[in-house]
């Protein structure tokens, strides 16, 4: 019989499958924090639930040793939340014990439970939004959308892809081979889905749920136990997630240790390495630095490792029929969450001879100043600007701004410190825009400068800009490429550069869609084809290696005779 939780959410799953096939727009979870969607008291209840965590111990009924927790809010409020610590062997032993019954459950059970967890997470979207805001520095609206419904959509997308792969494998099959005048050979075959084992999700400090949910739900929906190891700077959003998952698992009759939290204090490299290299860990999902991602790929050979790492995202400007719209769009992409996004643009290539517009050629300096002026306009009113910029997640990013200033390159737009009208101790920085030259400064702009730092780079023309962008994506990694042109041949060249660099391309964005946004069910986040990531969120390759199929077969009497076709 179909599991009741699968039946409960089957229509949502079917819609997700259909949308993923058609690549159109659909969201299962309302992205606006509206009382109409979430209830009249949801906002107040969610904020109260978040505040109830502050200064307290976060209770999880799982094996633990001591307490950990040193999260610091980028907005300056006191968090002081303590989480259960863990001993590696104890944690893994509990997960191994829990996964026995879970791995023997049916695929529709794995998927049904996963869908119920997502529905419960959606009901906690306001609580999660505040927890994302005060650990990552995202402004509230982004924290609600990206940390809540959009992250849940990405989790649902992973479940849908998992189910699509699982349902391709029949439980049993009858096999018959004709033998001419002799009796046919007949066999009954049985196929068993075997999960890999324990999956480890290594979270990031900027988008803990958006980047964490795909791996979490892809592994859970394919029958694996999951250990969620948050970044030490952003534990709370994933701790809430784990707590809700454990509640659903227990209600469904499973050991809640199928999903466990592995919280740590900062400087946890040795602990992470011990976990990642443990022979019982068979799947790893990682979002973070290139150095750590490369280490996992090179050393965690017992596991199938999925990584999203650093990259150099680029914009090529050739020509435009809407200079103001282009400048506004680029400026918003630079200011959004102070470019603390893996998809945010960094390098902006502009021909030193200028760009073509309906009004004539616009010189390099004027194009650069148009972008700078648009950033200034966005950030001119601090009360409004902070709702776009958010806060700087950690001091390392603020130090990187100073490092970029010290390069001695011409400053097109300096970074400013703003005061938040509600949180006076918040770390608020506006984008820094420097001028570089493609022929002399490649060593600077091929490095990722994560945070509100971008470069306008003078090139010898689009014939230099476009191949350069493709090569840098291929060699150094990128998640996004954007191009502006009114020339069809240049648009074709942009497509060729995106294929060369295995990077997603956006053309002529001037409206309400921005290069650093990625929509579930429609946009593939990353290709897995360049150094920025070895996987894509989400495609079949992201889920299919999380399980194996074991078959058994035996002879049975033939259903047909030599005179009757097998399919008659």
TrEMBL record:
<dbReference type="InterPro" id="IPR016162">
    <property type="entry name" value="Ald_DH_N"/>
</dbReference>
<keyword id="KW-0560">Oxidoreductase</keyword>
<protein>
    <submittedName>
        <fullName>Aldehyde dehydrogenase</fullName>
    </submittedName>
</protein>
<dbReference type="InterPro" id="IPR050485">
    <property type="entry name" value="Proline_metab_enzyme"/>
</dbReference>
<dbReference type="GO" id="GO:0009898">
    <property type="term" value="C:cytoplasmic side of plasma membrane"/>
</dbReference>
<dbReference type="InterPro" id="IPR016163">
    <property type="entry name" value="Ald_DH_C"/>
</dbReference>
<dbReference type="InterPro" id="IPR016161">
    <property type="entry name" value="Ald_DH/histidinol_DH"/>
</dbReference>
<dbReference type="InterPro" id="IPR015590">
    <property type="entry name" value="Aldehyde_DH_dom"/>
</dbReference>
<dbReference type="GO" id="GO:0010133">
    <property type="term" value="P:L-proline catabolic process to L-glutamate"/>
</dbReference>
<dbReference type="Pfam" id="PF00171">
    <property type="entry name" value="Aldedh"/>
</dbReference>
<keyword id="KW-0520">NAD</keyword>
<dbReference type="InterPro" id="IPR011975">
    <property type="entry name" value="PaaN_2"/>
</dbReference>
<dbReference type="GO" id="GO:0003842">
    <property type="term" value="F:L-glutamate gamma-semialdehyde dehydrogenase activity"/>
</dbReference>
<feature type="domain" description="Aldehyde dehydrogenase">
    <location>
        <begin position="90"/>
        <end position="504"/>
    </location>
</feature>
């Amino acid at each position: 019989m179909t599991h009741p939780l699968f039946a409960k959410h089957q229509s949502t799953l079917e819609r997700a499958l259909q949308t993923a096939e058609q690549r159109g727009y659909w969201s299962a979870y309302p992205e606006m924090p509206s009382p109409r969607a979430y209830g009249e008291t949801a906002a107040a209840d969610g904020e109260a639930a978040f505040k109830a965590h502050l200064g307290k111990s976060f209770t999880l009924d799982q094996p633990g040793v001591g307490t950990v927790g040193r999260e610091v809010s980028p907005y300056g409020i006191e968090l002081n939340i303590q989480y259960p610590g863990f001993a590696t062997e104890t944690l893994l032993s509990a997960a191994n014990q829990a996964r026995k019954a879970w791995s023997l459950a049916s695929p529709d059970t794995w998927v049904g439970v996963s869908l119920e967890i997502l529905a419960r997470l959606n009901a906690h979207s306001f609580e999660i939004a505040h927890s994302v805001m005060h650990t990552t520095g995202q402004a509230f609206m982004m924290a609600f959308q990206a940390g809540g419904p959009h992250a849940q959509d990405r989790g649902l997308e992973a479940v849908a892809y998992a189910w699509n792969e699982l349902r391709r494998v029949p439980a049993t099959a009858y096999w018959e081979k004709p033998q001419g005048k002799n009796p046919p050979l007949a066999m009954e075959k049985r196929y068993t889905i075997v999960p890999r084992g324990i999956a480890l999700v290594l979270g990031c400090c900027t988008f803990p749920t958006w980047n964490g949910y795909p791996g979490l739900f892809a592994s859970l929906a394919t029958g694996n136990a999951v250990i969620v190891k948050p970044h030490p700077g952003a534990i709370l959003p994933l701790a809430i997630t784990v707590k809700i998952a454990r509640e659903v698992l227990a209600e469904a009759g499973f050991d809640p240790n199928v999903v466990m939290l592995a919280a740590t204090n900062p400087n946890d490299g040795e602990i992470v390495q011990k976990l990642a290299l443990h022979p019982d860990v068979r799947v790893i999902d990682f979002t973070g630095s290139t150095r750590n991602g490369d280490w996992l790929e090179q050393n965690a050979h017992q596991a199938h490792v999925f990584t999203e790492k650093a990259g150099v995202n680029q914009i090529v400007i050739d020509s435009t029929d809407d200079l103001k719209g282009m400048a506004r769009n680029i400026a918003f992409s630079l200011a959004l969450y102070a470019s603390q996004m893996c998809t945010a643009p960094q390098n902006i290539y502009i021909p030193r001879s200028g760009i073509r517009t309906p009004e004539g050629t616009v010189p390099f300096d004027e194009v650069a100043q148009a972008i700078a002026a648009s950033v200034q306009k966005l950030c001119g009113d601090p009360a409004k600007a902070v709702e776009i910029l958010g806060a700087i997640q950690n001091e390392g990013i603020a130090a990187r701004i100073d490092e970029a200033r010290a390069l001695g390159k011409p400053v097109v737009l300096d970074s400013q410190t703003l005061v938040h009208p509600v949180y006076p101790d918040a770390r608020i920085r506006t984008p820094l825009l420097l001028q570089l030259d493609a022929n002399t400064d490649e060593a600077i702009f091929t490095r990722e400068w994560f945070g509100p730092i971008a470069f306008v780079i003078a090139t010898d023309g689009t014939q230099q800009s476009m191949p350069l962008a493709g090569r840098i994506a291929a060699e150094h990694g990128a998640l996004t490429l954007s191009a502006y042109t009114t020339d069809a041949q240049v648009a074709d060249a942009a497509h060729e550069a995106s294929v060369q660099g295995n990077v997603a391309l956006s053309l002529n964005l001037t409206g309400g869609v921005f290069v650093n946004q990625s929509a579930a069910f429609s946009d593939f986040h990353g290709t897995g084809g360049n150094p920025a990531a070895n996987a894509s969120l989400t495609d079949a390759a992201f889920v299919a290696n999380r399980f194996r199929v074991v078959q058994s077969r035996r002879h049975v009497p033939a259903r047909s005779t030599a005179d009757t076709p097998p399919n008659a």
